[in-house]
Amino acid sequence: MAKPKVAFFDFTCCEGCQLTVLSLGDKLLDLFESVEVVNFREASSYKGQDYDIAFVEGSIASSKDIERIKEIRKRAKVLVALGACAHTAGVNAIRNFHNQQEIRKMVYGDKAWVFDSILAQPIDAIVRVDYYIPECPIDKEEFLRFVSQLLNNMKPFLPDYPVCVECKMKGNVCNYHKPNPIICLGPVTRGGCGAICPSAGNACEGCRGLIPDANLEAMEWLLNEYGVSAEDKFRFYRMYNGLMGMKK
Amino acid sequence: MDQAESRRGGRLEKYLVAKTSFLKLVDEQIKEGKEVVAPVRQENQANFRRIKSTAEILWGGPQTVVSAKSFVFPPKEELLNYETNDEVRVQPRVEAKPLILLGVHSCDINGMALLDKVFTEKNLDENYVKKRENLTVIGVECLEPCSPESFCYRKDSVLPWDGFDLFLTDLGKNFFVEVGSAKGESFLSGLGKKATQADVDRVKKIRRERDAKFDEKQRKLKPKLSDLPVLLKENYNSPVWAERGARCFGCGSCNMVCPTCYCFDVRDCVELDLKHGIRARWWDGCMLTDFTRIATGEIFREDRGARLRHRTYRKDYYLFEKWGKSFCTGCGRCGKACLTKVVDPLDIANEIYERSRSR
Amino acid sequence: MTIYKPEVAVIKRVEKLTVTESLFDLELLSGKPLGHRPGQFLELSIFGVGEAPISISSAPSDSPTFQLCVRKIGNVTTAMHARKPGDKVGIRGPFGNGFDLENFKGWDVLLIGAGLGLAPLRSLIWAVLNSRQDYGRVFIIHGARSPQLLLFKEELREWENRPDVEFYSTVDVADESWQGHVGVISTIIPEVDFDPEKTQAVIVGPPVVYKFLIKELKNRGVEDDHIWVDLERKMKCGVGKCGHCQINNVYVCQDGPVFRYDRIKNLPEAI
Amino acid sequence: MTGKDLNIYVHHVTRVEGHGNILVDVKNGELKEVKLEIIESPRFFEAMLVGRRFPEAVHIASRICGICSISHTAASIKAIEDALDIKPTWQTETLRKILMEAEILDSHALHSFFLAVPDFFGLPSVIPMASTNPDVVKTAINFKKLAHEICDVMVGRHTHPISMVVDGFTNLVTEEQMAELLKKIKAALKNDVPKMLEFFSRIKFPDFERKANYTCLVNPEMYPFYDGMIKSSEAGVYRHRDYRQKIVERVVDHSTAKHAFGPVKPYMVGALARFNTNYKQLMPGAQEAAKMLGLEAPSYNPYHITLAQVVEIVHCLESMSRLIEQLLSRGIRDERVERPPLAGWSARLPPAKKSWGVGVVEAPRGLLIHEYRINGNGTIDAANCIIPTAQNLANIEADMRELVPQILDRSKEEITQLLEMLVRSYDPCISCSAHLLKVDFVE
């Protein structure tokens, strides 16, 4: 069987997901063994335009981006959104809630209209996405599992359960039970990260997006119960889930 | 505890052991390289952790975040590994090593006693049984309620029914030690002296006082414990399920922390070479959406309220009826873990009871 | 040996039945016969992909060969479809209760297979036909969504032509080639000339059909304790531990998948 | 060579972080235009920080860059601590220094081995080297693995650290874990460093010199990444809070990243700037390494940035060992800090004495500055971030302007290659440079 041809592309983002791939350690060599990487600008000068699987990280944030992602979709048999920016627009979407004219002026002053910029959007706002690997940044183990399952002609496993499941497995004290409780989006956020943030003493900020049947009414009830102001709530939702309620 | 005695066909030995010498015995075992796990403080709560000294043990603390079941039925457990070249080689994996579990509360001992039933019934689950056999369970009696959520007294679970090797009761300078097995007896290695009738009477008195205290402090269970299966059975269509379901995250936290939830998912993980891999099981939970989804996409228990009902019924109806024991030991973990306060089995039973009486 | 270790089996033959279904002949590497009852199932392992419960489609026999009819729908079944004769897979089982033929001996039997339900039912059909003298009248009723999706076409013809079988079939949507009954399977029941008093009825099909078929049978006067159903649920272990297949207080993998209707009609989650 | 026309346009320079184009226009032997176009979509990070409470701001700031997220986190934390007058403990600062050096190790290993080296083998990427030079690739992977393990253990993960927060850590590494890391660092020094030095000492770098203005942190106590005064060849030594007088940013049409001048001329930041300025403070093994590589301070060859990175890899391994040893000799105390609580948390803030703060660190690619104005309830009112790559852009163009006439006699392919290698040697991190904000702070 011929090795599948794989390409990596980046749009607006920190490129931390591609870097995570480059940081797979020994498994990176296994990856190079099992697929043919034909386009990986960050790591390679070879710009192959013939590929089966396209991993795309980053958000769509300019009109040029729209053209480029459409071209990639046309060529790719399988298109995978890599990481939060591609999946939910990630932190990039924070700016969607600011006045666009104002922030452009703030940044570029009188040259505000020189640069091409549109609202930050996830990849699937423009083209069809076959699979998602969520999280900011992606998890190495999940990426490897994803690739091996894809190579094995499987529909890759993506948990539908929330972060709480793995947080409990880890035996963490719930963020809402600490002497000074902190907002945690664990109950509505898709698991699979191993509850990495709560396990490191932080809160789940929702970077993996919502579970398919997230109970947002219950979340409202909970945050009200803890006296969280509406402003705090929205700020927190809008770390990664600016499109919450519309996009899961 | 009486049940354990009668099942073993005779009285169990009881000893009086100086606390210092008991703890010294454990510390020596640790020095010899034995793995000892006990509850220790974790932030404002507790958790089971491998200890280096008995000084780390949190006696009489709140219930651990995760129950002791994780030592016999871990969150992730490899069941087999395989290699598929020209030949298929499948190697079952049963991992078990000796472990001393010290300071276990009755709710968790009883939880394991119940899991013993289900994992040995008909198709014996070797992965569970081997771990269980390697475990030395040293329980400790709770003399104060451990948390506002717990209701072990209401579930006849303040003392272990079965499933321990030693059970300690704090008598100040001494432990009153009840032996539950030959393994427990040999662990003691002749420490202490046989308990006298006076010692036994003293413990009886302590337990009477403790019962009174628990009765006063723990939340009441309004229906009779033995009536729960019938009460639930008659209230299948109670509005309670939908009302509570509306506020349920379906997050599965209650399943994860429960000492008697034992559902699991099985998945394969294959290496990039597609030739080597493992099959493992992970904790799963009936409160999770995916739990009943089949390949064609149908979900058989889609409604959160129905899932909540199923969980409650498993504890206090289906398995209660089947085994003659409630599968809720009143540890209170689920009630604590449930952030929107919908899952607590005692609350649910009381609410249903009240509503059915006012009908 | 643990209950989770599959035995290796070899694929002997693959027959494509429809676009999505194929029939696999398998043999255990040990050469032993499977020793199953009709209605029992296996956990089929494709190593690296996972396990899935699959009903056994062949009749019980002393031969080492047994058959699975697999629809390509999930990861395991898709992977199974990519396998060729000579490839090795894993199996655990047979699991479940299956049909007890003693319950049907001396009775007329009405065997209803809807869609892929014909796969497990085929095992029972051949078991009945192999000792035809033990039973009264034998009715076989099969329905598919379209003529293209009919399974075991040759056998359907064989049954249709047998004088000792009363055969009915229907499709939901017909094409030019189809001469027979058109309509969902429950619409055919009123046309079948059987004596409800003397009949044991068996229904095997996807979850949606049970409610309608049972209603039709009851309309005809079949008693609840003469109706048998074969239910499908998510299963992970097959041995009564993992909890996924539970319907109220029964485990489909242990107490079923075959149930006498009167015993589950009060289980709200069953049908 | 008079009369030559040359038109070079490299679309999306590869093996760099982010999107940039090289544009060279020579007419009649005369250099008309040299540009490094930065075409990354603007990211508006400073605007995104506005309205955020500081614990969230740290995590958002980290997302500016996937490779130097620890530096961004550190700079963000330091700006906040500066504004709120929080003085972290010795232990916290020591742990941060270790983390910064771990990040340098990872980033330099990535750049020098994976991104820069293929040029010298005429290869498009490191991928074919996995079979042609497996030892070299393995060495790089070992460094990266080690750096990641250090970060995983200490702050949850390498890219976008989790438990590194204002005033400390939400989760603390244990002494056992640190001792384990120390063993691995020492093993890397013993096994992997000699292989790396042997490999790089055989590589021939292009000859080109242009003396730049070298700008970096200076600190009498150590070769600084985490803390120090700023020193620039043009502006001298100054305090971090004075950076606005010494660094001037300008918007240029062809770049979504602003260009920086210090204050008048272009300047260089990064490994070579640090090496040239702080050579004497390198750990002994690193100085030894420089000698082996034939790298002398000062070096005016920008292609030597890669070599300076190799030297810094050695330095960081040695320095981390020393820091961990110091930490272990004092013992690690449980100084965990909590994330500020759900509600009513502004009451728990320390009284703010200053309304604004500046945090400066040495990221792998050079000087990184975060400046925030914070209001009374701990919310960011205004933010400014100056990214190393943005500071280097004007200098890269100045280098190109000087280089092109020197090599005009070569083939277009060769010229293109040398220009790409030049840009690449700066290890530009374009995506994080493209989100600038000119903020006028009203004090």
From TrEMBL, chain A:
One Gene Ontology term of the molecular function aspect: iron-sulfur cluster binding
Signal peptide: none
NADH:ubiquinone oxidoreductase-like 20kDa subunit domain ranges (all copies): 14-149
Coiled-coil residue windows: none
UniProt xrefs under InterPro entries: Hydrogenase_assoc-protein, NADH_UbQ_OxRdtase-like_20kDa, NiFe_Hase_small_N_sf
Keyword line: Oxidoreductase
Stored Pfam families: Oxidored_q6
Source organism, top-level taxon: Archaea
PANTHER family linked to this entry: COENZYME F420-REDUCING HYDROGENASE, GAMMA SUBUNIT, HYDROGENASE SMALL SUBUNIT
The name this protein goes by in its record: NADH:ubiquinone oxidoreductase-like 20kDa subunit domain-containing protein
Organism: Hadarchaeum yellowstonense
Automatic annotation (TrEMBL), chain B:
Residue span, 4Fe-4S ferredoxin-type domain: 237-269, 319-348
UniProt cross-references to PROSITE patterns, sorted A to Z: 4FE4S_FER_1, 4FE4S_FER_2
Domain of life: Archaea
Gene Ontology molecular function, alphabetical: oxidoreductase activity
PANTHER family, A to Z: ANAEROBIC SULFITE REDUCTASE SUBUNIT A
Database matches in InterPro entries: 4Fe4S_Fe-S-bd, 4Fe4S_Fe_S_CS
Native source species: Hadarchaeum yellowstonense
Protein name in the entry: 4Fe-4S ferredoxin-type domain-containing protein
Automatic annotation (TrEMBL), chain C:
Keywords: 2Fe-2S, Electron transport, FAD, Flavoprotein, Iron, Iron-sulfur, Metal-binding, Transport
A GO biological process held by the record: pyrimidine nucleotide biosynthetic process
FAD-binding FR-type domain boundaries: 4-101
Obligatory cofactor(s): [2Fe-2S] cluster
Molecular function GO terms recorded: 2 iron, 2 sulfur cluster binding; flavin adenine dinucleotide binding; metal ion binding; oxidoreductase activity
Cofactor note: Binds 1 [2Fe-2S] cluster per subunit.
Alphabetized PROSITE patterns for the sequence: FAD_FR
Transmembrane portions of the chain: none
Residues bound to [2Fe-2S] cluster: 237, 242, 245, 253
One Pfam family hit: NAD_binding_1
Superkingdom of the source species: Archaea
Classification via InterPro entries: Cyt_c3_hydrogenase_gsu, Dihydroorotate_DH_ele_sf, Dihydroorotate_DH_Fe-S-bd, FAD-bd_FR_type, FNR_nucleotide-bd, OxRdtase_FAD/NAD-bd, PyrK_electron_transfer, Riboflavin_synthase-like_b-brl
Protein name in the entry: Oxidoreductase
TrEMBL record, chain D:
Organism: Hadarchaeum yellowstonense
Record-given protein name: Hydrogenase/sulfur reductase subunit alpha
Record-linked PANTHER family: COENZYME F420 HYDROGENASE, SUBUNIT ALPHA (PTHR43600), F420-NON-REDUCING HYDROGENASE VHU SUBUNIT A (PTHR43600:SF2)
Record: residues binding Fe cation: 68, 432
Keyword Transmembrane found: no
Residues given in the record as Ni(2+) binding sites: 65, 68, 429
Binding site residues for Mg(2+): 46, 435
This protein's UniProt keywords: Iron, Magnesium, Metal-binding, Nickel, Oxidoreductase
